[in-house]
């Protein structure tokens, strides 16, 4: 088997495996829907200026020396904070990157499954270069995670009218580049584990802080200073900024961030993490 055939075979296997798994397909749709309904719509009401009861706050604009449009002031403030879009659109556009991010690490579970059922040993003894074999697997899983993000964008159209259709392909390109890197990281970590429980515990420790310090749920500039420093070194921050920028036009991030910076950072990190995964797979033994 030459390198190209090995790459294509592993790529195809990961895509077909996802497409034939009903539980993964359903969970791909249900889990983001739960976030959208219970968190997005819930906080969307909190950040909606129309829901502010000024009389309950003791503010009576009609008796003030100068007429004041309190609702208008609050509306402009929220527009400034969320980049000119409502909170539901803000959150949905960030969840596009978050969905691929979470799926990238979950892909490592299939590596452990393959260890337990012996498939990983077969790939270790194939005549094709190991680095090509694991690259095909990583790119296949990254493609699957990008498809899941595309499903989220489709669902987002049910919740908001502020998604730019023309920005969808390029936003998915950023998501795919990020997914390659994080799938490589998840694969590299999974090569050191033989139990699902241990792997999932480590993954939760890594993914939860990165997810909450990426700007998915709130702007990075509204975070405490120490969290902002962490967010600057968090690759997911750049994927969230880019996907939100191309999908909605909102530029919500640090002052130095723009689409060019985002793709450069994501590309460098993804290449580094992919190489790490390839090197670790080359050193793996059938006893691992």
Give an overview of the whole structure:
The protein has eleven helices and no strands. The chain has 288 residues and is mainly α.
Offer a concise description of the structure.
This protein is mostly helical. It is built from 11 helices and no strands. 40% of the residues are buried.
Helix and strand arrangement:
Layout: H1 3-19, H2 22-46, H3 70-81, H4 87-117, H5 119-124, H6 130-156, H7 168-190, H8 196-212, H9 225-232, H10 235-248, H11 259-283
Helix pairs in contact: 1-6, 2-4, 2-6, 4-6, 4-7, 4-8, 4-10, 6-7, 6-11, 7-10, 7-11, 10-11
How many strand units? 0
Query: Given the structure, what is the number of helices?
Result: 11
Proportion of residues in β-strands: under 5%
**Roughly how many Å is the radius of gyration?**
22 Å
Name a few traits of the molecule.
11 helices, 288 residues, single chain, mainly alpha, 71% helix, elongated
């Amino acid at each position: 088997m030459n390198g190209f055939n090995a790459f294509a075979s592993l790529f195809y296997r990961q895509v077909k495996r996802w497409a034939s798994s009903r539980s993964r397909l359903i969970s791909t749709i249900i889990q983001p829907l739960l976030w959208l309904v219970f968190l997005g719509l819930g906080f969307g009401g909190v950040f909606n200026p129309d829901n502010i009861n000024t009389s309950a706050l003791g503010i009576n604009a009609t008796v003030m020396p100068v007429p004041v449009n309190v609702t208008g002031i609050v509306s402009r403030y929220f527009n400034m904070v969320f980049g000119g879009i409502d909170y539901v659109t803000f959150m949905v556009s960030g969840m596009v990157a978050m969905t691929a991010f979470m799926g990238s690490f979950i892909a490592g579970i299939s590596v452990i499954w393959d260890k337990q059922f012996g498939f990983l040993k077969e790939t270790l003894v194939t005549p094709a270069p190991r680095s090509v074999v694991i690259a095909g697997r990583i790119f296949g899983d990254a493609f699957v995670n990008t498809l899941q993000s595309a499903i989220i964008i489709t669902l987002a159209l049910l919740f908001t009218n502020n998604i730019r259709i023309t920005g969808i392909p390029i936003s998915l390109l950023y998501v795919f580049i990020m997914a390659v890197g994080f799938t490589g990281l998840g694969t590299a970590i999974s090569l050191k584990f033989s139990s699902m429980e241990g792997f999932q515990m480590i993954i939760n420790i890594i993914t939860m802080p990165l997810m909450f310090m990426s700007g998915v749920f709130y702007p990075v500039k509204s975070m405490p200073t120490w969290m902002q420093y962490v967010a600057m070194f968090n690759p997911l921050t750049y994927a969230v900024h880019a996907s939100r920028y191309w999908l909605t036009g909102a530029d919500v991030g640090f002052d130095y961030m723009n689409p060019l910076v985002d793709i450069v950072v994501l590309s460098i990190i993804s290449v580094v993490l992919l190489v790490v995964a390839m090197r670790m797979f080359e050193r793996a033994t059938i006893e691992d």
